[in-house]
Amino acid sequence: MIDRPYTTVLIVPTGIGAAMGGYAGDAIPIARAMAQISDRLITHPNVLNGAQLYWPIPNALYVEGYALDRFAKGDWGLQSVHQNRVGLILDQAIEPELRVRHLQAADAVKATLGLAVTDYIITDAPLKVELRTAPSGASWGTIGNPDSLLRAAEQLITQGGAQAIAVVARFPDDVDSLVLDNYRHGQGVDPLAGAEAVISHLIVRQFGIPAAHAPALKPLPLDPTISPRAAAEELGYTFLPCVLVGLSHAPQFIIPSDHSQLPSDGIWNNQVDAVVIPYTACGSSAILSFSQEKSLIIAVEENQTQLNVTPESLGIKVIKVHSYLEALGVLVAHRGRISLDALRPNLSSINCLKICD
């Protein structure tokens, strides 16, 4: 018997204050561990982006959030690539010195890592990013000039042949001091994350190619007491390197014109064996879609968030575990076709069903 690839999806929604995955790259160890027991690990930039830090995971697919939702629904497939040509959009609002820092980061990635970072373009108007906070405490945001962003992306694609788009937008420096201080010390929500998602969603939805975002900010004052989980965001002048690395091998999207006859190649939602999510963040479009498939859904209680959307409140059947360590054990058993009941000390006999009249 030939086994098909065992495929795991790891989701930690952005901007919801996840205890693990709510900071820059602090979910990478979880992704690395899950990749060890999966043939394919599908996850998203919020999990793999670590500012100037990153880790190459050969069997991980870097899929932007909007595309992941479409994949989970079965509308889009994923096609692995050898390498993408990555184009770079810089917000006109970025100050000249800060712009140079980001261009140097792109050149460094090209020279030091050998990635195909090709052209850059400056938007024809400031993008005007504004930050918001929902009543739940989750962060979100708006972009004042989305048309300028889309015009820049279109030019990179049509004139530069870009196959993936990295965006650097100037974000406000006047973030609420208490919110920012709490975040730097390991509490609360990333105030930037929700707005970042809006930017990448726009490009992926419009052009159907991979995209991800890195904010441009002034360096923060030195603070020797910050949380280790927030430390990656204190390094250097830019968060761009991890985005360029992720996009360089991000899968392209298969977008069929006729959904009644899906292509046989690529990866599709019905090939996903397991999905791992925080227990209190089960309301995303992707999770609702996966719950309609045969995928095993594992909900991790230890990864607390600002939300309280539990699987029980939505009628979603899950395996509830305390930690990601326990989730890894469930994945090992599931991949090995071993019943979880067989790994518990109290094992009941099989049930007898009565024949219906």
UniProtKB/TrEMBL annotation:
Superkingdom of the source?
Bacteria
Which Pfam family, any one, appears in the UniProt record? DUF3326
Q: Which PANTHER family match?
A: OS01G0127400 PROTEIN
The protein depicted here goes by the name DUF3326 domain-containing protein
- Organism source for this protein? Aphanothece sacrum FPU1
Lineage per the UniProt record? Bacteria, Bacillati, Cyanobacteriota, Cyanophyceae, Oscillatoriophycideae
